[in-house]
Specification:
18% of the residues lie in helices and 41% in strands. It is α+β, with helices and mostly antiparallel strands and 314 residues long.
């Protein structure tokens, strides 16, 4: 009887040991499985605090990228703006601008704007105006000018660096200038002689004018007036007409100005070629004068001549 009880206790003990061993094996398996699962979520192998649940390592984010004239929505795995752009294969130039910045973290519905920035060179051409240089000549009469050298415009190139954002110019900076053709000054010589000697007299003058000279009388054929007309023989200035008077364009020779007409001494020796501008005429315009003669035959003999007139000073 005692032997039978001893055998039963031994069997129970063996069964208990077997059960404990099985529990130990199962427990180790559970612990091993749990640890491996966490490490998959945490590749660095960090220990998960008791009671905490590890967050997933990979998270898909929906973002929008605006670049190169397009707006695209896409899902990415990256956690920063730089990673997202690299993931979608969007390459940046050295001057391109990104908003938000490349190191900014991605958030849900982040909008990334890429501005393409490029530079180019532009050239503008500018005309260079020439100057007029005046030189006095003491051997030339006052009022006479002569062009010694014709002026010529120059040409200049202005180089700019142009900055473009998405193909649109936003700034322009001058880099350098280049003279392609220098300008040439116009050189003008002018006379300074203000006196002339005629018949022993020294005359001072302020201007020399080249004119076309014609002749007229006080008769009807020149003035349209006959003797007896209240204005017959009266000049525009109100003075009675006489030899030594001329009709002028007042915008060229002021009325009542004294002039010396070169080459007319033989016509009016008493006045030594000096005349007084007293009259005007409807046909006398610009550099033209009309010289008074007492008779029609004298006027016809004079005809039309090219002459030089000195505007005398008082």
């Amino acid at each position: 009887m005692a032997n039978r009880q001893t055998c039963t206790r031994r069997n129970l003990l063996v069964m208990g040991l077997l059960g404990a061993t099985m529990l130990l094996i199962v427990g180790c398996a559970v612990v091993e499985t749990s640890s491996e699962s966490w490490r998959l979520a945490n590749p660095a192998g960090e220990v998960t605090p008791s009671g905490d649940i590890a967050e997933p390592l990979f998270q898909v984010r929906q973002i929008t990228i605006v670049a190169d004239g397009e707006k695209k929505r896409m899902a990415v795995w990256g956690v920063s703006v730089a990673e997202a752009l690299a993931e979608v294969g969007l390459h940046l130039g050295d001057l391109d601008r990104v908003e938000p910045s490349l190191d900014s973290p991605l958030e849900a519905q982040t909008v990334i704007v890429v501005t393409r920035v490029t530079t180019t060179e532009a050239v503008e051409y500018k005309r260079l105006a020439f100057r007029e240089v005046r030189r006095a000549n003491t051997n030339v009469n006052r009022g006479v000018t002569r062009v010694l050298q014709a002026g010529r415009e120059g040409r200049q190139a202005i180089h700019y660096q142009v900055t473009l954002e998405n193909g649109v110019e936003v700034s322009r900076t001058q880099v350098r200038t280049e003279v392609l053709q220098p300008q040439v000054d116009r050189v003008v010589e002018y006379g300074t002689v203000g006196t002339l000697s005629r018949g022993g007299d020294v005359l001072r003058y302020s201007k020399v004018i080249y004119v076309t000279a014609t002749a007229y009388t006080s008769g009807y054929e020149s003035t349209g007036k006959r003797p007896g007309h209240p204005q017959y023989g009266i000049t525009f200035s109100g003075l009675p007409v006489q030899v030594g008077h001329i009709a002028v364009d007042r915008s060229v020779i002021p009325l009542l100005s004294s002039v010396y007409i070169e080459g007319l001494c033989e016509v009016s020796r008493g006045l030594s070629g000096q005349y007084l501008a007293t009259d005007i005429g409807s046909a006398i315009r610009g550099n033209r004068i009309d010289i008074f003669f007492e008779s029609l035959p004298e006027a016809l003999r004079f005809g039309r001549r090219r002459m030089r007139v000195f505007l005398l000073t008082r």
